[in-house]
Design brief:
The protein has 220 residues and is of the alpha+beta class. The chain is built from 3 helices and 8 strands. The protein is rod-shaped.
């Protein structure tokens, strides 16, 4: 008989998600009873291994059994843990683990769905990466085009400035020769006019003895 302060035994104990080395045990607890944990007794049917799992301060109603032997028979029993002790063990539940070769076919549909979802995510990631790469390339192309345009404008301005600088020098250089010549001629004429003219009192040939008699004095 169950103790009045202890919770009742778990019900609807089932084993799901069978694999070669693991399985999931789930159960239900009657309503109105305070349960703070559970205890699971796991044993191989041949008696080679036995395991006791105890968990408190939890409201879980399921537990994953790990490190099971491949293609082996097991027996499990579940107990509820209350504030004043543990309940009686539930009915025995038998299950058999799968073979290693049976693991993939049992979950083939789920794995296919996971694979398709993974492929869709990869495609979405690839599409997003391509869009980002194209946007970056367009931005760089716009920057390069703007730089080339600014470079051409600066180059044209520099060439125009050089042309404007060369024009005044050529214009000033051409009239220098005639004006310079005129200035030099004016200066020469003025220099000649500046010298005082001495009156000629006699013939220049008077010093020559042969023609001295033919010359007469220029002044009375």
């Amino acid at each position: 008989l169950a103790h009045p302060d202890r919770p009742p035994s778990p019900v609807n104990v089932t084993v799901t998600q069978l694999k070669a080395n693991s399985a999931t045990v789930s159960w239900d607890v009657p309503e109105g009873d305070v349960v703070i944990g559970y205890a699971i007794l796991q044993q191989r049917q041949d008696g080679q291994m036995q395991r006791f799992i105890r968990e408190v301060n939890t409201t879980n109603r399921a537990c994953v059994l790990w490190d099971l032997a491949e293609d082996a028979d097991y027996i499990i029993q579940v107990q509820s843990i209350g504030l004043y002790g543990e309940s009686q063990a539930s009915k025995r539940v038998h299950f058999r683990t799968l073979k290693e070769t049976d693991r993939l076919p049992s979950n083939s549909s789920n794995q296919g769905d996971i694979t398709m979802e993974g492929l869709d995510k990869d495609r979405q990631l690839q599409t997003g990466e391509i869009i980002i790469i194209v946007a970056v390339l367009l931005m760089w192309a716009a920057v390069i085009a703007l730089f080339c345009r600014q470079y051409d404008i600066i180059k044209d301005n520099d060439s125009n400035n050089n042309k404007e600088k060369t024009k005044p020098s050529s214009e000033h250089s051409t009239p220098e020769r005639p004006s310079g010549g005129l200035l030099r001629s004016k200066i020469r004429v003025s220099e000649l006019n500046a010298f005082p003219r001495a009156p000629v009192r006699g013939c220049a040939w008077s010093r020559l003895p042969a023609v001295h008699a033919a010359c007469s004095p220029a002044w009375p």
